[in-house]
């Protein structure tokens, strides 16, 4: 295939596509709004699953590099009650199919696997338009443009490429995370460090829960989930760290102090992360010379699959383009049909559908029953 591929977005999905294309000798350029690879923090831990994310890394020929960044022991997971009692712990014996890595490290090995000029940093997309005959023009914020015969939107929830294919826009799903970090936890936040343990911990309850993960070293990264309307969060001044933390913590009155300390003792200002989603059955008619992957195509509320699916999208798109070097439309059609089906499948744990935060089954006891039924 000699048609150069233009990718918008240097996240995990876009970079996986670029790497698979590079493996197959297909020319590719990635345009990224961020000014450099280190322009912002890349988020916390990711569990990379053997049935999607790892398949993508195999297609990218990066499994050795992946194994080198896995943090041992982080697959350990605790199920905790509101009073801090550890109800159940799944140990990490090294045989699980969801090894944990830092998102930033995963992005780094993808970037390192590409020629230095593959990613063009500091290219924020302002708009896109169709020119006809499968050609599209991308206009960047600085006024510069690029015209391409194969455009891939890997640019996330608020994709600037998506309007070429679909008029769908993400909508708030009714829940948000409030994200916090506790540093030097083993010496400065001992109660929270003890309850989280060596991997991750979840304390679920209908309409709210606290999830925390031990990252590299003794950093704790917590995600406090609440089912509340956007105007409820808008009434909180998140620039006032102590007041914001205190307001969020009030929603967990009566919970163990080592759990609420993950909110009140944070070493950063709490960060609000509203959850948006595209329609569950988001589809579009085939548009010559353009497609989407990852959140640009099938944004969903956090469910543990987003990054894995984005990477698999990228790998599968790269594979189909390499398989049909003389027929781009056949490649895009095959890719989209498989991606539509894959992204609409319910999230499951060993064949049991995972319930959302608002479910009456979002309790430690219900989760324990589900885990026990499947030998966890």
Descriptive overview:
- With 376 residues, this protein is an alpha/beta fold.
- It has 2 domains: 5-74 and 97-170 and 279-345, 3-Layer(bba) Sandwich (FAD/NAD(P)-binding domain), CATH 3.50.50; 171-277, D-Amino Acid Oxidase, Chain A, domain 2.
- Helix content is 31%, strand content 25%.
- The chain has 13 helices and 19 strands.
- A 7-stranded mixed β-sheet has the order 5-4-13-14-15-12-16, with helices on both faces. Strands 7-2-1-11-17 form a 5-stranded parallel β-sheet, covered by helices on one side. Strands 8-9-10 form a 3-stranded antiparallel β-sheet, with no helix packed on it.
- Helix 8 (241-250) packs antiparallel against helix 9.
- The longest helix is centred in the C-terminal third of the chain and has 18 residues, at 306-323.
- The protein is globular, with a radius of gyration of 21 Å.
- The mean pLDDT is 93.
- Pfam families: FAD_binding_3.
- It comes from Streptomyces piniterrae.
- Its main location: cytoplasm.
- Belongs to the aromatic-ring hydroxylase family. TetX subfamily.
